[in-house]
Amino acid sequence: MAQEEVICANRDCRIAQGGKCVEGQDDLAKCPYYGREPEEIDDEQDDDSQNAAAAFDGVHLPDALPLESGRADKVLAMLPSRMIGVIGVHDSGKTSVIAGLFDLLQLGPVSDCTFAGSSTLHGFEIICHDARVASDRDEPHSERTKRGEVRFYHIDVRREGALQSLLIADRSGEEYEEVADLAANAIGMFELRRADVITVLVDGRRLALPSDRADVMGAIPLIIQGMIENGAFLRKPNLAIVLTKNDAVQISPRKDRVEQDFRALADSVRDAFADHFGEFGSFVTSASPKDTIVVRGAGLGEMLDFWMKPSAEPKGARVHYRSGRVFDGLAIEETDFG
Fold first, then answer.
1. Are 286 and 249 in contact (CB under 8 A)?
2. Which residues form the Double-GTPase domain (predicted)?
């Protein structure tokens, strides 16, 4: 029986190659593009576009959107850099943490780090917009990260007189959730193998809900274990455990229980996985609070300070190869020929 051809009208979608919908739809029947042929490109319009491009005599600027891996590699080669892997399930506050840190740096130095540039300014402005007054929203909002290839947000900072680059990896939360179900799903997450710091987000709002508490407490160790089984942390990066949405925790009648659960979770992760990481840190943040009971961006400065800490040098071990032959037992003897 012939296999049905996978087609999609969205030319950017690679579902035929990777099996993942770029629109983030698990139910492909809900995707407006899946199963449809891409529209034909009008040759006349294409010619007009090429003529317009040929007539343009200005300066072409980069799009300043989040970087794909090739462009991220070029940034890593330009300055001393820190790669940050951010692990968080769907709606855990990953985008808010990235956007909140960028907004905080616009107000002045954060943890002795002064904003010194970015090649992803447009990307930052897009994810920050819905949390600003200019969006006309009633409360801050963050767009979910779509499924697909990982993208990187870039910030240059000046600290103690030296320039450093910060590359923050952004991947959809659904892909991290799938690692808890099947560890092999972590194989393609190359950004974690390169990361200097792994940041695991714990959703404070869900932790405060009795119906979700067990899921939050149980999923994070499973995700980390799945990553370890696939060799994601061989470089022994530092590990930050971050409670997000502390504003929701502070107004919850279960506030004390949530804080106790977070400390227990952070301690259990540190004890269980100590051999796979360098330094551990735990932080409580409110990147984009919906309630004014906490300050916007609270806790992000301490987290940034941890991100900038140098990683411990990997501890190498001399491995002696043994073939099982008698020669393996021979030792070199110093001989005096004098």
1. no
2. 82-308
Among 128, 118, 125, CA closest to 96: 128
Count the residues in the chain: 338
Integer Cα distance of 212 and 206 in angstroms: 6
Which residues contact residue 332 at a Cβ distance below 8 angstroms, ignoring those fewer than 6 apart? none
Reduced 3-state DSSP string for 249-302: HHCCCCHHHHHHHHHHHHHHHHHHCHHHCCCEEEEECECCCCCCCCCCCECHHH
- Report the distance separating Cα 168 and Cα 197, nearest Å: 10
What's the token pair of residue 238?
Answer: 């530092």
Q: Tell me the one-letter amino acid at 334.
A: E
pTM: 0.74
> What residue spans of the chain are helical by DSSP H?
15-18, 43-55, 69-78, 94-107, 121-129, 173-181, 190-194, 204-207, 210-229, 246-250, 255-272, 300-307
- pLDDT tens by residue, 12-33: 676 776 676 666 666 777 777 8
Contacts of 44 (CB under 8 A, 6+ apart): none
